[in-house]
């Protein structure tokens, strides 16, 4: 085998075709609402980590668990990258009518791209937070919040951070 590219071989690299059962697919006995997706800082140096917080509210009549998922999308990259990359997730139990604020760290390594070596690139990125993948079509309603952040500085090898 000489072609090791993942393009067309896994759902992460398909064009606009959505997978039949994407990660996070499923139903719940309650409903959840996401709000207040905050990134800190919204502009960060090339080697810095990103702090993320989001509020999850159980708006249903029953206690429930939700798998909160964070995905990253490169808006421009010098090499092929996935449409979005899962960078964090957490299963959270939330009683009916309650809300919880969740905090995550997205490490600089999670923004690295492979081009003969792992390296970091500056640019604009989109971060998604929700109970499913971005753009997922399911029968169960679930929202996905998104916001952008910017990485500044010169491209550099990951080991240089």
UniProtKB/TrEMBL annotation:
UniProt domain Fibronectin type III-like: residue ranges: 66-133
Gene3D superfamilies in UniProt: Glycoside hydrolase family 3 C-terminal domain, Immunoglobulins
The organism's place on the tree of life at top rank: Eukaryota
Keyword Membrane: no
GO biological process per UniProt: carbohydrate metabolic process
Catalytic activity: Hydrolysis of terminal, non-reducing beta-D-glucosyl residues with release of beta-D-glucose
Record keyword Flavoprotein present: no
GO molecular function, one term: beta-glucosidase activity
Cross-referenced InterPro entries: Cellulose_deg_GH3, Fn3-like, Glyco_hydro_3_C_sf, Ig-like_fold
Keyword field: Hydrolase
Residue stretches spanning the membrane: none
Enzyme Commission number, as recorded: 3.2.1.21
PANTHER family in the record: BETA-GLUCOSIDASE (PTHR42715:SF10)
Membership in a protein family: Belongs to the glycosyl hydrolase 3 family.
Protein name: beta-glucosidase
Organism per entry: Uria aalge
Gene coding for it: Bglm
